Amino acid sequence: MELYKRMKFNNKNIQIGKNVKIGKNVKIGDNTIIYDNVIIEDNTIICNDCVIGEPLADYYTNEKYQNPILKIGSNSLIRSHNIIYAGCELGDFLQTGHYVTIREFTKCGHHCSFGTHSDIQGHCTIGNYCRFHSYVNIGQKSIIGSFVFIYPFVVLTNDPTPPSDDLIGSFIDDYTQIAAGSVILPGTKIGKFCLVGANSTVGGSFIDDTFIYGSPAKAVGKLSKMPFFNSKNKKHYPWPYNFERGMPWQGIGYDNWIKSNKNI
Amino acid sequence: MELYKRMKFNNKNIQIGKNVKIGKNVKIGDNTIIYDNVIIEDNTIICNDCVIGEPLADYYTNEKYQNPILKIGSNSLIRSHNIIYAGCELGDFLQTGHYVTIREFTKCGHHCSFGTHSDIQGHCTIGNYCRFHSYVNIGQKSIIGSFVFIYPFVVLTNDPTPPSDDLIGSFIDDYTQIAAGSVILPGTKIGKFCLVGANSTVGGSFIDDTFIYGSPAKAVGKLSKMPFFNSKNKKHYPWPYNFERGMPWQGIGYDNWIKSNKNI
Amino acid sequence: MELYKRMKFNNKNIQIGKNVKIGKNVKIGDNTIIYDNVIIEDNTIICNDCVIGEPLADYYTNEKYQNPILKIGSNSLIRSHNIIYAGCELGDFLQTGHYVTIREFTKCGHHCSFGTHSDIQGHCTIGNYCRFHSYVNIGQKSIIGSFVFIYPFVVLTNDPTPPSDDLIGSFIDDYTQIAAGSVILPGTKIGKFCLVGANSTVGGSFIDDTFIYGSPAKAVGKLSKMPFFNSKNKKHYPWPYNFERGMPWQGIGYDNWIKSNKNI
Fold first, then answer.
1. Partners of residue B49 in chain C, C-beta under 8 Å
2. A111: which chain B residues are within 8 Å (Cβ-Cβ)?
3. CATH of the domain at C33
4. Which domain holds residue B95?
5. Cβ contact, residue pair A134, B137, below 8 Å
6. Which sign does the torsion angle of CA A116, A117, A118, A121 carry?
7. Do A230 and B166 touch (CB under 8 A)?
8. 8 Å CB contact between B133 and C167
9. Residues B108-153: pLDDT tens digits?
10. Does residue A8 have a pLDDT over 70?
11. How far apart, in whole angstroms, are the C-alpha atoms of residue B50 and residue B72?
12. Alpha helices of chain A — where are they, by DSSP H?
C-alpha cells in the first residue's frame, strides 16, 4: 500500500538541524522544526507547527549535549502541533492527532495511533496496533502490549507513594481495552483480553479475560461471559472476532490470521 | 454590537488557500494557515498559530480530494493554536480558548464557547449558547441542546462495546449542566434542566429536572427540590432565574425572555 | 548555579511588542510572539511557538486597552507552545511543559513547574516549589501553598451551583499531594501534609496529615499512620523526609533545612 501520494504543503518556515535523514516522499509542514539526529523514513508526513527531535533538558545546560537519535517509521502521519522528543523509536504506520507529546525514549511498534492531546511521558514500551484516543497519559515505565486501546482521560500512573523516585510502571497485556476516565495505579498488571470499565480506579493484578470495574476496581467476572452484546446481538468479547477495521486480520478473520501468524 | 474594533496583528507568515471567503473586518493572526474552501464571516478574529480548514484524512491519499466547506460565523473569536477541520458549520459569536480542536462535520449554533484543550470529535450537533470549559471531549454522534454547560474533564463517549463501529451518541437536552470529571456513557439520554454531579459515571435515561450523581450515577431527586442554595440564599435551580451573564435574557429576566421567544 | 549556557535557536520569525524588557542571557525560540509590557528576567529561556503576554479579552474590543505587565522570573524554562497571559507574576526557576496555558493574574512563587497540557485559569495564587503534572486544571480563586504536588487530570473547581458567578476557590495547604483524576469541589479546604487518593471527589475541610479518599471523599485516617511504605520499607509520609530531588532541603535533610529556614 502506498499512502499519501499528494501534499500541498508550501515548504515555508521549515528548519532542519544537522544529521537529519529524510526518506523518500516525505512531506514536512510549514513552521515545523526538526532538531539534530532525526531519521524520518519513507512516505511519512509531518504536518504544520511540529517540533521533531525536541532536545532533552540537558540540552539547555550542557555544552556537549548531543541529541539522541529519534527514528520515525515509514508511512506515518504526524498531525499538526506535535512535539516528539529525541531518543524515541517509533514504528511504521504511526498516526497521531494534534498537540501530542511523545517524550524521550518512548518505544512503540508499528500501526499505533495516539490521539489529540495525548501525552506519552517517555521511558515506556508500547506494542503494535495500539490505539490511544484523545487525552491519554502514559506514565514512565509503563509496558503496554499489542492491540491495546485506551480511551479519553485515562492515566497510567507510576508513583505509589507520591512524591518519590520509586516509580513502578503498569503492565497492560495484549488486546485489553481501558475505557474513559480510568486511573491505573502504579504497578497494576492487567492480563490479555480484559476490559476496564469507565471511570474505574484500578490496582492489583487481573488475569486474562476479566471485566474490571469500580473504584476501587474489582474483577466483576469473565469478560467473555458478560452480557455485552453488539449491534448484531452477538457477544462482543473477545473483540477481535467482531472488530477488524485497521487490524491485520481485516478481511480474513481473526482465526485465520492467528493461524498464519504465530508472532505479531 | 460591534465587537473587535482594534487589532494589532502583524500579518506575518499567514497562508491562505484557494476559494477562501473572508468577511469585512476579519483579522487573522500570525503563522495561521487557512486551507481551501473556508468562509469566515464579518468581524471574526482568528488568532495566532491556528490551522483553519484542516483537511480530512482523505487529503493525504486521494489525488482528487476537495476540502469540504468550513463556515465560521460572524463576530467570533478563535484564540491561538486552534485547529478547526474542514466541513464544520459554526454559528455566530463563537468563542474558543487555546489548543481547541473541532473535527470535521461539527455543527454548532450561535454564542457557543469551547474552552482551552477542548476536543470536539466531529459528526456531532450542538445547539446555541453552549459553554464547554477546558478539556471537554465530545464524542462523535453526540447531540447537545442549547444552554448546556459542560465542565472540565468531561467526556461524552460513544462506543458501548469497545472497540466497535457501533457508535451511539448521547443526547443532552437544553439547560443541562455536567460537572467536572464525569463520564457520559454511550447512548445516555439526559433531559432538560438536569445537573450531573462531579466525577459521575452516567448511563441510561433521565427525565427533566433531575439531579444525577454517582458511579454508576442514579437519579438522586428533582433538581429544583434539592437544597442547592446560591450566595443570595435562594434555590439556584432552575438556574436561568439566577444566572444571566451572556445569556439572551440578560437584563430582562428569563420569564420575560421566554414570553418573547418561543424559539431560541 | 548558572543554567542554560547554550542554545541553538535561530531567532527566526520572532515578534516582540512595545515596552518589553528582556534580561541578560535570555533566549527566545522561533515563531514566538511577545506582546506589550512583558518583563523576562535573566537566564530565562522561552522555547518555540509560544505566545507571551497574551492580551485579555478586552484587547479585542477596547481601543484604549493596555496590556497589564507580565513578569516571568529568572532562570526559567518555558517549553514550546505555551501561552502565558498578560498580568501574571511568575517567580524564578519556573519550568513548564508544552501546551501550557497560564491565564491572567496568576501569581506563583519560585521553583514551580507546570506540566504539559496544564491550564492555570488565572486569578489564583500558588506558593513555591509546587509541581503540577500533565493536565492539571486550576480554577480561578484557588489558593495553593508551597510544596504542593498535583497529578494528572486533577481539577480544582470553583462554582458550587453551576452556572453562577458565585465562585469560591479551594485552599490547599503546604506539602499536600493530590493524586491523579481527583475533582476538588468548590470551597474545599485541605490542610498540610495530606494525600488525596486517586480519582476522589473531595469537598469539605480536612485537617493536617489526613489521607483523603473516595467519592465522596472521606478522611480515612492520619496519613503518617497509614501503611504507605516506600522502596526502603520505610513509612513514606511525611514525605519531605523521603524525597528531596529539587527541594531546598536536598543534600541537607528536611529537619536541618527547617531549622535554618523559618520562612520559605
1. 31, 49, 51
2. none
3. 2.160.10.10
4. 15-260
5. yes
6. positive
7. yes
8. no
9. 999 999 999 999 999 999 999 999 999 999 999 999 999 999 999 9
10. no
11. 13
12. 254-260
Residues of A in contact with C179 (CB under 8 A): 157, 162, 183
Question: Does residue C61 fall inside a structural domain?
Answer: yes
Q: Is residue C127 situated within a structural domain?
A: no
The structural domain count of chain C equals: 1
Instruction: Tell me, yes or no, whether B35 lies in a domain.
Output: yes
Q: Which three cell numbers stand for residue A11?
A: 515548504
Binary contact (B63, A30; C-beta < 8 A): no
Contact between A15 and A30 (Cβ < 8 Å): no
Phi, psi of B210 (to 5 degrees): -110, 140
How far is the C-alpha of B199 from the C-alpha of B212, rounded, in Å? 11
Which of A15, A136, A151 is the mutation pick for testing B, counting most B CBs within 10 A?
A151
Phi, psi of B125 (to 5 degrees): -130, 130
* Model confidence at C1: pLDDT above 90: no
Q: Is C130 inside a domain boundary?
A: no
Give the closest residue to C109 by CA, choosing from C153, C156, C143: C143
Interchain pair C198, A199: CB under 8 A:
no
Q: Which of A4, A10, A245 sits opposite B15 (nearest CB)?
A: A10
CA C216-C220-C225 angle, 5° bins: 155
Return the C-alpha cell found at C229: 511504605
Please tell me which of the candidates C77, C228, C236 has its beta carbon nearest to residue A60: C77
- pTM of the predicted protein model: 0.96
3-state secondary structure of B115: coil
User: Distance between CA A12 and CA B33 in Å, rounded?
Assistant: 11
B20: its cell numbers: 477562501
